[in-house]
Amino acid sequence: MNLGIDTTTPPLLSVNDIGVDYGHHVGCTDVSFDLWPGEVLGIVGESGSGKTTLLNCLSAQLAPTRGTITYETRIEGARDIFTMSESERRMLMRTDWGLVRQNPRDGLRLGVSAGANIGERLMSVGARHYGDIRNEAAAWLEKVEIDVQRIDDIPSTFSGGMQQRLQIARNLVTEPRLIFMDEPTGGLDVSVQARLLDLLRGLVTRLGLSAIVVTHDLAVARLLAHRLMVMKDGKVIEQGLTDQVLDDPQHAYTQLLVSSILQP
Amino acid sequence: MTDTIEGYNFAYLDEQTKRMIRRAILKAVAIPGFQVPFGSREMPLPYGWGTGGIQVTAGVIGQDDILKVIDQGADDTTNAVSIRRFFSRTTGVKTTERTTEATLIQTRHRIPERALADGQIIIYQVPIPEPLRWLEPSEIETRKMHALQEYGLMHVKLYEDIARFGRIATSYNYPVLVNDRYLMAPSPIPKFDNPKMDNMPALQLFGAGREKRIYAIPPYTKVKSLDFDDHPFEVQRWDGCCGLCGATGSYLDEVILDDQGERMFVCSDTDYCEDRHAEGHVGPLGQAAE
Fold first, then answer.
1. Burial code of A236-249, b = ≥16 C-beta within 10 A, e = fewer?
2. Spatial separation of the C-alpha atoms in residues B182 and B28, rounded to whole Å
3. Which pLDDT does position A30 carry in this prediction?
4. Interface of B with A (CB under 8 A)
5. ipTM for the whole complex
C-alpha cells in the first residue's frame, strides 16, 4: 500500500525508549517509534494497558520517567520536547499540535460560543481582527459539517457528535501538523461514529496531518490508522501495518483481541 | 491636627504591618500591573467595602497628607464618609472633598474628572484583581498565563461580546495591558475612565483585601485598553448633559425623578459638578449659584 509517506525526510516525532512509572507501578515502558509526516498511528489495547499514559506523555502533558521524545519543529529542527522551555512547549501545543479529547466537554470552552471556541487559538497567537477570526471560524464550521447558522450558539446546546466535530475544528484551525486523539469516537452512536470517522479520514488526507489515535475500537483503528501498535500491561507487544496486524496477528493477546470482535 | 482616638497606632495598623504593605507596594510599583500577594489583615469593615483600599491607604498615609475618599464619584455616600472618618479619627490628617487639594485619593469605581497631577496618589478598592478569573478558574493556570504572557483568552471574552451584542459590551472593569506586559483589571471603574489611566502623572495603587493582592501603575506608564482592529476601544457617551452643571464631557449618572419615568442625568463626580456650578455653569434642571 502506498501511503504517500516520504521516509527520506526526518521523522516528525521520534520516541526513544520512554517509560512512565507511577511509584512502583509501571504506567508504560520501553516504547520506541518514529512517526513520519502524513502518517496516522493507532494505539490499541485493553483498559489499563497504558494507552492513555503513553498519549499524555507524547503530548507533553506528563513527563516520562525515562527516555526522550524529539519533535521536528518548523523553525529549529529536532528538539527534545521536555528540555524546551515551558513557554515554547505551550506555544507548540496550541499551534503545531492538536489534542482531541474523548469527552468534548473537556476540550471545549462550554461557556462561550462555537465561533469563540474555534477562534481561541487564533487569538492566542495574536489574531486581533474580529471579522477575520469570524470568517475563519465559519469556514471551519463548514469543513466539519456544522451549520454555519450555529456559530453564535454555545456548545452545550450541541449534540455529542457536533461537540466532537467542533472540538476537532477548534484544534485544526491553526493548521497543526500533529494531532493526538484519545478515543475520538467514544460515547457516540454508530452512525454518528461512521460520519465522524469519514470526516476525520478526509481531513487527515486533505491536510496531510500526522495523527496518533488511541482507541480500544479496532474498527476505528482499521479505518484511520496506517500503522498500529498493540499494548498490554504497559508494553508494546506487537506493531506493524494495520492490515497486517489485524489480519495476521502474531501475539497471543492480539489474536484474542481480534477474535473478540463480534461478526454481525 | 484634630483629636484622634486613644489606644490605636497612627493609621490603625501596627508599624510591622505597614512595613509589609509598603514592601508589597514597592514591588508592585517596580513591576507595573503585576499582582503582589500580601498578608491582608482584618479591618473594621466588611470584605467588599474597601478593606484592600484602606490597608494601602494606611500603608502610605503620612501626617502631612490631605485625604479625599470617593465612592462612585461622590464624596458624600456611606462608604466614602465612613472611610474618611475612619482615617481622620485614626490619623488626625486633614480631609477634603476637592480633587485638586488632595494628596491621597481613595476611590471606589471612579477616577475624578479633574486630571490628577504629579505627586498625587490614587488608591483603588479592588474586589477581584484577576482579570482572567471568570475565564479560567485555576489560580495556578492564571499565574502561568501571566508569567508566559498568554493573554489570548481575554480576547475570547471580547469576541463573545461582539458576537452577542454587536459591540464590546463590557462597560466596567475593562481589561487593560500595562506597560505592554501585564494584563490588569482596572477595578470596576467604568471604561469611560480607562483613558485617564494612560500616562497619568499620579501614582496609581490597587488594593484587594479579600483576595490579598496589591498592584500598581507608576506615574507616566502606558496603559492600553484591549480591543480588536475592526472594533476599536471606545468610551460611553450621553446624548444630554449634566442636569445641574451642564457638563457634557463627564461621566453621567441617571437619576429617576418620579413614577412617570421622568429622569435626569447628573455628573457622578460631585466635586467636579459643584466646582463647575460655582464657576457659573448651570444645567437645564439646576439653579444658578448664589
1. bbbbbebeebbeeb
2. 12
3. 92
4. 144, 148, 150, 152-153, 155-157, 159-160, 162-164, 227-231
5. 0.85
